[in-house]
Amino acid sequence: MRNEIELQVIIEDYLKGNLSESEAKAFEELRINDPSVDHKVVTHKVFLDAMGDYAATLDLKSRMDQIHADIDVAALSRELGPHPSKIVNMWRKNKAAIAVAASFIFLASVTVYSIKQNTKQIGDVQLVSRQLAKMSSVQNNLIRKLNNGAAAQKSAKPANYGGTGFALTANGYICTNLHVVDGADSVYVQNSKGESFKVSIPFRDPQYDLAILKIEDEGFKSLSNLPYKIRNNNIGMGEQVYTLGFPKDDAVFGEGYVSSKTGHNGDTTQYQVSILVNPGNSGGPLLDNQGNVIGVVSAKEDQVDGATFAIKSKYVQEALRSIADDSLGRKIPFNKRKSLQGLSRTKQIEKMQDYVFMIKVYK
User: Fold this and answer.
1) d(Cα 212, Cα 200) in Å, to the nearest integer?
2) What is the pTM of this model?
3) Distances (CA, A) of 181 to 159, 174, 209, 236
4) Are 165 and 213 in contact (CB under 8 A)?
5) For position 148, what pLDDT does the model report?
6) φ, ψ dihedrals at 302, nearest 5°
7) pLDDT tens digits for range 305-326
8) Are the CB atoms for 274 and 263 separated by under 8 Å?
9) In sequence order, what are the beta bridge partners of 362?
10) CA-CA-CA-CA torsion sign (330, 332, 335, 337)
11) How far apart are CA 20 and CA 73, in angstroms?
12) Angle at which helices 84-118 and 35-70 pack, to 10 degrees?
């Protein structure tokens, strides 16, 4: 407990610039090497920013209350009255003061609105899971019928939520976002052939918003060796990337570039990428030009088109290490020859489609 308190004190001093240059440099190295410390720094910064905005809001409210208290509303009402001539005379005598007061009220309103927008820590970032149950009847008609025997009968009703997942192993382990499947009564995945399989959720990581699913359906046949690898090293700004996901009933391709090596509010566990995504893209793979998985699409900026966030792939690797080796198989059968490398984007997508799944969640 004492060490935890001391760490919080150091984090606060670091964020306020109270550490010496050598102390700050050493702490930044600790952030890079210890993701849990980095996560605490990001969380504490969000907390401090929110407290600062709240204090500014209280100060503005206090000033506006004081201005309101200084105005004799009853006297003004009696003086103005209903007669037009009095209103005109009042305007002529006091138009400068009234204009200043109106300007102040307008600026105060804009400031309050801005503070409210900046303090919405969740509202300004949208999780991009797909809420199927609230679609219009026309959109619902686009949803394929689950036609995989007994599995189809169990999941015949429309799904409540949807998202995307991609294969981590040939024997049915699939990665997605935790927010896609959290709270589900049952989860199914659907492949590019329209076949659906029931899955379990053997791993959940709320810290990084990751979940690993396992296909439990006896009708599932193991995949061929995966044509992509999970990239270990960081990707550079400006590098071209692409993703596949299910914002509708068919897979949708999106292409862009890495615009920042950190995510929302400077979160170092994420990339920011310039790709347009929509509800249903959550959990989809983010790949580089060579066909390596470099992240998992998770959210987008509410007010900015094309500002998308993806969890870095190293946290997917950490999640995989939590699964017992005898469950994963002797080794994860990625294709060592990088079968996507050197192919045109069209050919890469053709090979990828068998390994990207639509996720349907029932509650």
Assistant:
1) 9
2) 0.59
3) 12, 12, 10, 31
4) yes
5) 33
6) -70, -40
7) 778 999 999 999 888 888 876 6
8) no
9) 186
10) negative
11) 55
12) 170
In this structure, are residues 182 and 201 in contact, taking their beta carbons and an 8 Å threshold? no
- Distance between CA atoms of residues 117 and 128, nearest Å: 20
Residue 88, pLDDT > 70, answer no
Cα within 13 Å of Cα(180), Cβ side: 37
- CB-based contact 267:246 (threshold 8 Å): no
Phi, psi of 185 (to 5 degrees): -80, -40
Q: Which fold has domain 125-363?
A: Thrombin, subunit H (2.40.10)
Cα–Cα distance measured from residue 53 to residue 182, given in angstroms and rounded to the nearest whole number: 31
CA–CA gap between residue 34 and residue 12 (Å, rounded): 17
CA–CA gap between residue 175 and residue 29 (Å, rounded):
29
In Å, how far are 123, 250, 287 from 318, measured between CA atoms? 29, 30, 18
Written as one string, the DSSP assignment of 216-283 is: --TT--PPPPBS--B--SPPPTT-EEEEEE-SSSS-EEEEEEEEESS-GGG-TTEEEEE----TT-TT
Q: How confident is the model at residue 52 (pLDDT cuts 50, 70, 90)?
A: confident
Inter-residue contact 198 to 186 (CB < 8 Å): yes
The single-letter code of the amino acid at 108 is: A
CA–CA gap between residue 69 and residue 72 (Å, rounded): 8
Non-local CB neighbours of 192 within 8 Å, separated by 6+ positions: 251, 353, 354, 356
What is residue 146's predicted lDDT score, i.e. its pLDDT? Answer: 27
Q: Which has more pLDDT, 233 or 338?
A: 233
Contact 280, 129 (CB under 8 A): yes
Instruction: Identify the DSSP state of 334.
Output: B
